[in-house]
Amino acid sequence: MRTQYALVTGSSSGLGYEISQYLLEEEYVVFGASRSETDITHPRFIDLEVDVTDEESVQNMYDDIGKETYGLHLVVSNAGIFEMGSVLDTPSEVFLDHLKTNALGPYNILKFGHDFMIKDVSHLIHISSIAGKRGFENVSAYCASKFALNGLVESVREEWKSLGVRFSTLMPGAIDTPIWENISDDFERSKMLDPEDFIQVFEMVVKSPPNMQFSDITFLHKSGALE
Ligand SMILES: NC(=O)c1ccc[n+]([C@@H]2O[C@H](COP(=O)([O-])OP(=O)(O)OC[C@H]3O[C@@H](n4cnc5c(N)ncnc54)[C@H](OP(=O)(O)O)[C@@H]3O)[C@@H](O)[C@H]2O)c1
Description:
alpha/beta, 15% strand
């Protein structure tokens, strides 16, 4: 079988880490992109230091990827940040940080990755959130950034139609990852999905027929969204 190449942003922690491990098991060559290093040591894992909010950093990352492959079969735009706070207590820098990481970051990944699209083959998977579909109290910066991400993906899907690439967007509810560690509210972890649950859905999307894309796949714990 021909080598399959995947780019995973936010590979140093949480879902990106699990996605990278899963794709390595599935025989992909994985470019893992985060600001910090991961502890994944695998001959098919290539750790790249990148800040997705920074154009030059993203362009340098693609220069490095270009030394290994001409194209990417899978791009998983997963890097993200999440903070909670009321609109009155959220400094505008924090609001902007969310937009930069969760919306401008995926924009940079798409824009500068265009030359790596393989016609009729590449699958672009974005990890959005249920917070990209509805509002939550004290989550305005994050919600705004995930709504923006969804708008970005919906538009680029139309623009790149002639390329025949697929766009799938996952919109999970809460998942028990390190993203919750800095949240002061005491949410019950037992009411969150596990990363393994997430990987089951991710696998279904990755292994779906090549003529299929998932424009909105929403899934959450059976107890409902965390409020
Ligand atoms: N966990 C949940 O409940 C949940 C639910 C719905 C959606 N999501 C989404 O799932 C994605 C992954 O979240 P997670 O729960 O796995 O969080 P996490 O454990 O905090 O991981 C976030 C990852 O994003 C990377 N990252 C952050 N800013 C970056 C930047 N500027 N450039 C490059 N990488 C950056 C981090 O690496 P560095 O710090 O090393 O850069 C880290 O690898 C996010 O988009 C999140 O919004 C999570």
